[in-house]
Each structure stands twice: as C-alpha cells, then as structure tokens.
C-alpha cells in the first residue's frame, strides 16, 4: 500500500525504545517501571520523553479508550489519550477510586492519507469522507464520488475499536452515523502507513505526527489530503480552520504521583512538551495551555476540565 505526502513532508522520527518492567496491584500501579498505556497516536511523544530524559517507562499502544479501560481499573500510572476522557470512563475511574489528573500536552490534526500516485483525490470534503466511510453509504468506488475519477474500489484502512483517533474521526466525520466495518484496522501506525504505501487505491486516517514520522521507505509513497480545502498544517489546526484538529492528553493516576519517579516524569513531561512537539512532528498548543497544565498538575487538580469535554 502507499502513503500520501503532500505539502507536509518531514524526515522520519527515529525509533524510540523504552525499557519495561512490570506490574500493578491496587490503585497505585507500578513496580520498577512507570506503566503507561493508551493512545498509539500519543505513544511516540511519551516514548520520546522517556528516552530523551532517561526515565524507566513501559509504554504500550493499545488505543485511548482501551487504555482508559485499563487505567480506570488502576492498572496503569498514565494513560496516553488522543480524546478527552469519555463519561463512561470517568464513572469507571470513580467506581474504582482512581482519581485522575487531565493534562493537555499537544495538538493534532487527524490527517487523511492516500497513495502518492492518486492525483485526483487531493482535496475531499467532510461530506465526501462521510459518504466514503459511513456504513449505509452506496459509495464503494472513486467514481461514486466523482464520475471523472477511476472506476476502481476504494480500499480503506484505519484504526480499530478502542482507538481515540477512531472515536474522534467518527464524531467529526460521521456525525452519529455508523462507520462501515469492512476496512482493515491496526493500532500499529507504521503498519497502517505501510498498507497505504502499498495500495494505489488506499485511503486512511492517522495523527499528523504519525504521518510525518513515517519511515522513509513508506513516506515516499504516501500523501495527505486537504479537507474542505484546508491543509492539516500547524497554522490551520491552531486557528481551528482545519476541521479534524484535536488536543492530545496524558491522564495521570493521582495516587501514582506519590512515587518520586512518576512525579519527576510528569513534571519533566510538562516542562518540555511545548518544545518537544515539533521534534515528534505534532503541533503545539497555545502557550498559556502549557502553563495551565503545569499549574493543574502542581495543584493535583483532578477530574475533567469542562473545556475539553464535547
């Protein structure tokens, strides 16, 4: 499969290795390593932080909502999330006496990705994306979108259930309609890029940082797509013009912050996240949001911030 690369092309992010240790018990998870679960989109950011600042962190990428399931059972110190915590998981955390601190760390633009050889679908509307991805839509070929486009089947690739990226994509694109169930899905974003890079009829979605950090062997075969005439650039995401932009978070178990390693890791994460975002190919939040996040953590303010709740 192939993978698009349009106005936004960047070098691949070097692979980051984090060392794991194990285990959790009550509502204060952890033993030797800090346990992080959740978003595959945010995982490269957290892994970079752990590696760059020399923390012993075990990071797994299972999707934001699958991560919340684990985190709210008290089985992780931190949940990486590409979506604000849904109400069901707020309740689950409450039922399990897991107090969480919600910390925004960056800005993402969910990027529609195609094969580079596809030179006709360089700009798609939100309505066209809806028609391509909705379960009951008759659209199956490019020519169903535009008769002048090839009479070939659109091959769809994306993220599985349990992914925050999928949840946000459905919310912003499908507007309450069901997503079709005949697309290939993975939580491995490099695999997702590879699928697109190998398929001239591919169409997919992923975080902008995941797209820009794709390995060179796949990057040269993929391209991204404007949505409603707007590119997924930093400026357009920050302005709110790009229709598929969203904040990124880490959620911290308050009980875990009593551990010195967790406290130092989160403090370091918040001190450096604004500067680190471009290095991992994501976008920065407004400067004041970083100050607010540092204060929220210093004050151990728990629960969701109404600002991020949809």
Automatic annotation (TrEMBL):
Transmembrane segments: none annotated. Pfam families: PBP_like_2. This is Phosphate ABC transporter substrate-binding protein, PhoT family. Residues 27-265 form the PBP domain. Residues 1-22 form the signal peptide. Gene3D superfamilies: Periplasmic binding protein-like II. Keywords: Signal.
